[in-house]
Model the fold of this input.
Amino acid sequence: MLFFSIPLETDTITSVHISNPILTELYHGQSNLLITNIYNKQESFRLTNENYNVTLNVNE
Done:
């Protein structure tokens, strides 16, 4: 499990792009669960070898 927090001094973020190809390069069947909590809006995504990018529109 990996947890990280990025404190920002702005509230004008409109989107966040996350790419995670490294963790699935060695083990193609591996998937990684990504849980975000941005502006108190929680979303989850499963990143795989075929689907390793996600862009979150956070002000919608």
Remarks:
- The two ends are 28 Å apart (CA to CA).
- The mean pLDDT is 80.
- The beta strands are 15-19, 32-38, 41-47, 53-57.
